[in-house]
Amino acid sequence: MDETVDVRKGEELDTAKVEAYLHDVIQGLDGPMTIRQFPSGHSNLTYLITVGGQEMVLRKPPSGTKAKTAHDMSREYRVLKALAPVFPYCPRPMAYCEDSAVMGCSFYVMERLQGVVLRKDIPATMTLGPKDMTRLCQNLIRVLYELHSVDYKKVGLADFGKPVGYVERQVAGWSRRYCSARTPDVPEAQEVMAWLAEKMPPDTDRPCLIHNDFKFDNVVLDPENPLNITGVLDWEMATVGDPLMDLGGSLSYWVEAEDPEDVQMIRMLPTHVKGALKRREVVAYYEELSGRAIKHYDFYRCFGIFKLAVIAQQIYYRYYHGQTQDQRFKMMGLVVGVLERAAMGIIHQSKL
Which long-range contacts (CB under 8 A, 24 or more apart) does 222-230 make? Predict the structure, then answer.
């Protein structure tokens, strides 16, 4: 179960203003308010708000310079509001605020989903044998496919993204973001960016709603039956685009037991344990569910790793320039180097 901590220095909220706002827009709140912070996550800041016996989650952008289109609270709230009635894993949004007088930025509040979130290692209190882990990995990919199967036009998200030219915009956009956020102590990554620009597949003929950060620590497991996924979190990068780019993003986190030592050192999820699907098995299972052949696997995974490197660099940029005191970000520059080498490894072995 995700535990909260005292709010980190520099990330405090104005309790009186938040309390007044929530009492004004949410019916039935009664009792004193407390604010705690969820310590995990590296992008938007996430807080647990408790009023009396009711728990809610508040999401807001971090402070400091950030990408122009990043941390758009209105988009995140909009996709939750559209999906909640049709996608059973979606938390219910409760309020959205863009009045800067309340917090100085836009933010939203949603219901809290109770359950287990897997992070780097499986908790000692949880028993998952090889067959269980295989089933859990399959369930993870099945939920991703269920998301890709939502009729995004029918739920009011027809204008939520631009599928035409999506891959090209992603490669160009994330390359620009890396160059803009690069600090002197990380790789230039020019060869990676050039290869991605050269090997881009054509636009998908089946665009859909994609999550863009779909992985184990963004899903909630039923504590009574941890093979059962009950929620999907962290929708800040959701859009309409290519589902195989979404899958490639998931595979960028998928570290196997046989991967190099430096990759093992930055592993964030328990995808290395016995029974966990291998990356190629993940691809094969998605092919089976979707009925489509994945011919550009190397590109999708390489792009996913590069995008992860860009995100890590944007986070490190904030630490490097003193915009955050979060000590977790101190080593992010080294993570960028590991990811750049992993991307180069794919490029050198690829037959594309």
Answer: 222/115, 222/116, 223/1, 223/114, 223/115, 223/116, 226/116, 226/126, 226/128, 226/132, 226/136, 227/132, 227/135, 227/136, 227/139, 228/139, 229/89, 229/139, 229/140, 229/143, 230/89, 230/113, 230/115
- What is the arithmetic mean of pLDDT over 45-70? 79
Residue found under tokens 């998931």 = 250
**Does an H or E element contain 289, and which?**
helix 279-290
Could you tell me the CATH superfamily of domain 130-349?
A: Aminoglycoside phosphotransferase (APH), C-terminal lobe (3.90.1200.10)
pLDDT in tens, 281-303: 999 999 999 999 999 999 999 99
The single-letter code of the amino acid at 216 is F
Write the pLDDT tens digit of every residue in 148-184.
Answer: 999 999 999 999 999 999 999 999 999 999 999 999 9
Q: Tokens at residue 17, please?
A: 């203003």
**Residues 183, 313: contact at Cβ < 8 Å?**
yes
> 15-111 belongs to which homologous superfamily?
Phosphorylase Kinase; domain 1 (3.30.200.20)
| DSSP designation for 343 | H
